[in-house]
Amino acid sequence: MYLATPEPGLPSFPTTSHMGHFFAFFAVAGVFSGLGSHLVNNLVRLPRLIRALRSPAQLSPTHALAAHNAINPSLGASGAVYACLTVTALAYPDTHVSLIFLPMLSIPMPIGVLGMVMFDIVGLVRGWR
To answer: Strand pairing partners for 14?
Structure first.
């Protein structure tokens, strides 16, 4: 049980659930993930779009469509889920996970999370959709 330490002279109330802490962590992780996505869009993708649109003679309809679709909105929910998985892997490093299509193969959770993050980074670098 977690006892909050209030100001001197105020009573302390026990916290019966940590759901509030989890939701606050999830919300903050989602906000930072959305901020990171917004910064990448505005610092990397937007200058490419502006350069492509400045030379309309070299801009074909397919390039125009690709430039238009280059900036997609995002909410940051996947970043919040990754943050929760990472914190869980750090809190319980001895836990094992398995893939749904290979249930006989058990992987330590930190290695599994690292593999997921590396797979996502490779997808970002290669431009997978």
So the answer is: 3
Q: What is the reported pLDDT for 79?
A: 87
- Looking at the chain, the whole-number percentage of residues with pLDDT higher than 70 is 69
Q: How many C-beta neighbours within 10 Å does residue 34 have?
A: 17
Asked if residues 2 and 18 have their Cβ atoms less than 8 Å apart, the reply is yes
pTM for the whole structure: 0.66
Q: Per residue, what are the HEC states of the chain?
A: CEECCCCCCCCCCEECCCHHHHHHHHHHHHHHHHHHHHHHHHHHHHHHHHHHHHCHHHCCHHHHHHHHCCCCCCCCHHHHHHHHHHHHHHHCCCCEEEECCEEEEEEEHHHHHHHHHHHHHHHHHHCCC
- Is the pLDDT reported for residue 64 higher than 70? no
Show me where the domains of the chain are located. Answer: 2-76, 92-129
Identity of the residue numbered 88 = T
